[in-house]
Design a protein that fits this description.
Layout (H helix, E strand, L loop, with lengths): L1 H19 L4 H20 L28
Length: 72
Amino acid sequence: MCIGVLMISTVIFAMVLLLFTKAKRHEILAAAAAYTAVLVVFVGNVGNNGYSATPTIFNNSGTDTALGLKAS
């Protein structure tokens, strides 16, 4: 779901730039890439329950949430 939100938001942002500005293709691509990078940071921090502003690999129990590995 998060990837879908990122994709839709980026496409809408790029379309607005395309339709309402005189920006060239490479400028729109650069702006869309920067916009997506910012979105990734914000969406990546959603659900951290306020513990940290930086992304972490391990959850509170010391287990990697993606791979199920234990912290050493």
